[in-house]
Amino acid sequence: MSTESTDVVLTLDEVYALSCRVLTRHGLSDAHANAIAHVITQCQRDECHSHGVYRLLVCARSLRVGKVNPRAEPTLRDVSAGIVAVDAHHGFSLLAFETGLPVFLDKARQQGIAAMAINHCYHFSALWPEVEAIAAQGLVGLAMNPSHSWVAPAGGKEPVFGTNPLAFAWPRPGGQPFVFDFATSAIARGDIELHARQDKAIPSHWAIDSAGRPTTDAKAALQGAMQTFGGHKGSALAAMIELLAGALIGDLTSMESQAYDEGVGATPYHGELLIALDPKVFLGDDYEAGLARAETLLGAVVAQGARLPSQRRFDARARSLRDGVRISRALYDDVLALLE
Ligand code: NDP
Ligand code: PYC
Question: Which of 36, 40, 43, 51 has most ligand 2 atoms within 8 Å of CB, for mutation?
Fold first, then answer.
């Protein structure tokens, strides 16, 4: 660890070890702590600050309020040839994802398409590590989940939807996959929380205050309602995610998750839906030609100087692998305080 002015620089091994210490100190089993530390380290490595080391504070608070089962052992249910369900039994989602992944991928390879429902989980993480894990196996991946009802529908002022992320990954021959992962709100709530921690103003299109007026005050935004991205389009996608990754998989919507929380301030409790598609099954003998056509398409984007989503992350990843990661002294001190 080295320090420079107000930042602290950590190696990735140090981030992982610190995360494990904090999480086990708060009662998590080693299996949960390792799964979570792995994803938090990946997010900090890729400079996804809203879902990196900052999430240790969120996990610790969620454990302290006593709702999460810190030693839950996920169980699998073989729903059909193309569907597997993983019950997280009130634990965090990430161990459930790891537990279900091999069966889910197997089903996708056999059927060409498969779905995995994760149920009854506390969820705080970014989705790109999960769709990247699917693409690393040569499959196309989609993931989505509700959260707490923090977001007003386009045209309304009262929170109904969660920040509902949608992530997609497409495997590319010999390179990083094509990946996007975004909240269907204008920004992840974690980003507004980070602005509030630092007393920084937010853009006025991110949220309205509790009186329904656009606000640049991050704290007022957290008390009011977030806005969807792209107006009615983000609103429709947010609704789709409530339906697919809530009602369809027999789990809570964001409104229900918020009510379930009873005001204690834990991370949202609900389900997640993942879909994997195998290009080898879809394309058969045309597999290589199909992937080559995808490369032509993606090449036409970058050829004109536009960037692909996730390119910032991949650049940050290369930098962090070389130089370590940088977090603010204030955040580092707050994380260390969790060990006291
Ligand atoms: P951003 O708006 O920062 O980024 C969304 C996506 O757009 C990323 O893939 C990003 O790639 C890409 N992107 C950004 N700018 C450009 C550009 N100029 N050109 C091309 N692509 C671009 O993310 P959000 O704030 O919406 O979400 C952040 C994270 O929060 C996500 O990982 C999401 O999973 C997580 N989240 C989790 C929730 C949960 O319930 N668990 C709820 C809500 C969000 P790049 O990263 O390379 O910039
Ligand atoms: O940043 O919106 C968010 C979020 C919700 C749950 C986890 N992250």
Answer: 51
